[in-house]
Design goal:
The complex is a heterodimer of chains A (about 130) and B (about 290). Chain A starts with 5 loop residues before the first strand and ends with a helix. The longest helix of chain A is centred in the C-terminal third of the chain and has 27 residues, at about 105-130. In chain A, helix 2 links the parallel strand 3 (about 45-50) and strand 4 (about 75-80). Chain A is globular. Chain A contains four helices and five strands; from the N terminus they run ββαβαβαβα. Chain A has about 130 residues and is α/β, with parallel strands linked by helices. Chain B folds into two domains: about 5-160, Globin-like; about 165-275, STAS domain (Transcription Regulator spoIIAA, 2-Layer Sandwich). In chain B, strand 3 (about 205-210), helix 10 (about 215-230) and strand 4 (about 235-240) form a beta-alpha-beta unit. The chains are: A alpha/beta (about 130), B alpha/beta (about 290). The interface of A and B includes residues 82, 86, 91 and 104 of A.
Chain lengths: ~130, ~290
């Protein structure tokens, strides 16, 4: 069974879905991604779905649960490149993916993640200063 | 021995074909449809000849204008009135095409029946019934075609009335005018989402100044649009909620959980701010004292 590759770029993980998602593939992705976040300590996950043409309620729910699992592991999920037809379908299905960040394309999605990483670094920096003082 | 209406009619129409057709054409020529220049005489003649030929054949199978023998005739008449509806003929013109046939046939019946009054009466009743039925059929097709035209126009208006305009790089505005029903929301949503992709927009302003009423259904449609735009990675601002509508919404318990601004200008200012821009006056205001 083929799997969707997960790329690591700095503190972020990038997943591009370029095949039709079927249920087992989605489950495998959730598993792989969780393991990868735990291993690399990534702080952001970018899922690119511009090639995804067909979604059903299961895939929608998978996205939500991937985001929820990532959040537990302190990584933020950004879904980018959703097609208009897919967006309409998800809304009609009642899946508004609340809690997931979205962006129009990879560039904007990455800048969202970068902003978070930067914020966290500053946060950590000040904490460390607190400890030293 | 007297005959029934169908036989009388069939006989008359076959025997007196030339005379009836001639009289019918003369009457059609006087009619308004030719005067208005919407149709040429030659075309009218061809139509009349086709219809008359089919009528003669149909009569051989009986008098029932809804029956099988009349099917080709009904088809031809339907075609004619459909094309007239599209060309903009009046209903009178269209109906007169078939009703103008009455008089020539009556005339011919009188000639052929001679002194036999019962034949004449039977024939006239039969013709009246049949032609009335055919006339009604013509009108039905005429109206159906008109309604089709109106429906198509309505659809075109719906598409035209949902323009997505680009206010600035990455800022779109969607001025909505008219009532939002689910069919229109679909069109609006598709247009907006496609525009977000095309313009790489970050912010979409939905202006509802032109929406007369906002009830729970409209609010739900708005929220759907906003949610779909968010999924594409664009933020939405709703603007132009009029005071009465705001009151109604609150009284109805309708909640729009989105950023909303009173006017399009306010919303635009917010959008500029969110995208890291600012509008600055190049010169100080000349005379007005500001306090």
């Amino acid at each position: 069974m083929d799997r969707i590759p997960i790329l690591k770029l700095g503190g972020a993980l990038i997943v591009t879905i370029q095949v039709d998602m079927h249920d087992r593939l989605a489950l495998a992705l959730e598993e792989d991604l969780t393991a990868m976040i735990a291993r690399t300590g990534a702080r952001g996950v970018l899922i690119e779905i511009s090639a995804l043409e067909i979604v059903d309620s299961f895939i929608g729910r998978m996205l939500v649960s991937i985001a929820a699992v990532s959040r537990v592991l302190d990584a933020e999920t950004v879904v980018v490149g959703m097609r208009p037809a897919v967006a309409i379908t998800l809304v009609e299905l009642g899946l508004e993916l609340t809690g997931i960040k979205t962006a129009l394309n990879v560039e904007r999605g990455m800048s969202l993640i970068q902003a978070r990483l930067l914020e966290d670094d500053e946060g950590h920096g000040s904490h460390r200063d607190d400890f030293e003082d | 021995m007297s005959m029934d209406g169908a036989e009388v009619l069939s006989r008359t129409v076959t025997q007196d074909e030339a005379a009836i057709l001639e009289a019918w054409l003369a009457s059609l020529r006087e009619g308004a449809s030719l005067q208005s220049g919407r149709i040429r005489e030659a075309e009218l003649q061809t139509q009349a000849k086709t219809v008359f030929g089919q009528l003669r054949e149909a009569l051989e199978g009986g008098l029932d204008a809804d029956g099988g023998s009349f099917a080709p005739l009904r088809e031809t008449l339907g075609e004619i009135s459909r094309s007239r509806a599209i060309q903009g003929f009046t209903p009178t013109d269209t109906a007169n095409f078939i009703f103008a046939l009455k008089e020539p046939i009556f005339e011919s019946l009188r000639r052929t029946a001679g002194s036999d009054a019962s034949d004449l009466a039977a024939g006239i009743v039969a013709v009246g019934k049949m032609l009335d039925r055919l006339g009604l059929h013509t009108m039905e097709v005429f109206l159906a075609s008109r309604e089709e035209v109106i429906g198509r126009q309505g659809q075109e208006i719906a598409e035209l009335s949902t323009p997505v305009v680009r206010l600035w790089d990455g800022i779109l505005a969607l001025p909505l005018i008219g009532t939002l029903d689910s069919a229109r929301t679909g069109v609006v949503m598709e247009n907006l989402l496609q525009a977000i992709v095309d313009e790489e927009a970050e912010i979409a302003i939905i202006d509802i100044t032109g929406v007369p009423t906002v009830d729970t259904l409209v609010a739900q449609h708005l929220l759907k649009t906003v949610a779909a735009a968010r999924l594409m990675g664009a933020d939405c601002i709703v603007s132009g909620i009029r005071p009465q509508i705001a009151q109604t919404m609150v009284h109805l318990g309708v909640e729009l959980n989105v950023v909303s601004k009173a006017t399009l200008a306010d919303a635009f200012a917010v959008a500029l701010k969110q995208t890291g821009r600012k509008v600055v006056r190049q010169q100080a205001a000349p005379t007005v004292e500001r306090r």
